[in-house]
Amino acid sequence: MNLYATKGAINARLVPLVGRLAAAGVTPDQITLAAVPVALIGGACLLLSPGAPALLVAIPVLAAVRILLNLLDGNLARRTGKIHPRGELFNELGDRLADTAFIAPVAFLPGADARIVLLGLLAGVLASYTGITTKAAGAERLYGGILSKPGRMALLVVCSVWAAVAAPDTTAWAIFGPVLLVGTTLTLIERIVTAVRRLP
């Protein structure tokens, strides 16, 4: 489920949109920070979904917007030359905030095991931290893994659609936590092993 493998092809298709954003004066930092409120809205939809299952229909759209924004900010930074250390801080911190805002609410949904969901989220954050630290130590930033960020969003989308269609059945959220925990733990292990191999 390493969806980062398709990143190059997707970036190529975004070139016209990136050009329009640059012409409009939109900055990479604005795109980066926009992903956080999108995730907060997604988290709110999840929290409110037990009483209004139709809100789950918004999750695929919001998850797609989050991933799109994540692709656009880097493209726009390269296009406009506005690459700076503060932008990297916004990008990494914004990603962690968005992940937490999107995934943590699942812990409070009927059928979900809060401990497993939150442990899965923690493993995902640690996997991201490993990727960032590997770059800080002198190697390339690590993005891959069986359940990297695009994979986590894909899992959330699948379970949201499942829950919306099957409501009030809560099986989707009961399954979400274990799959998240196993996937992010394997991603963490993979990145640690890769980092150890690449670093002197």
Molecular structure report:
It is a single chain. By secondary structure, the protein is mainly α. It has a single domain, classed as CDP-alcohol phosphotransferase transmembrane (TM) domain (Four Helix Bundle (Hemerythrin (Met), subunit A), Up-down Bundle). The longest helix is centred in the last third of the chain and has 28 residues. The chain is globular, with a radius of gyration of 17 Å. The relative contact order is 0.15.
Provide key terms for this protein.
200 residues, mainly alpha, 74% helix
Count helical runs: 8
| Backbone CA Rg | 17 Å
Low-confidence stretches: none
CATH overall fold name: Four Helix Bundle (Hemerythrin (Met), subunit A)
Care to give the gist of this entry?
This protein has 200 residues and is mostly helical.
Secondary structure blueprint with pairings:
Blueprint: H1 7-13, H2 15-23, H3 28-48, H4 58-80, H5 85-103, H6 114-136, H7 149-166, H8 171-198
Helix pairs in contact: 2-4, 3-4, 3-5, 4-7, 5-6, 6-8, 7-8
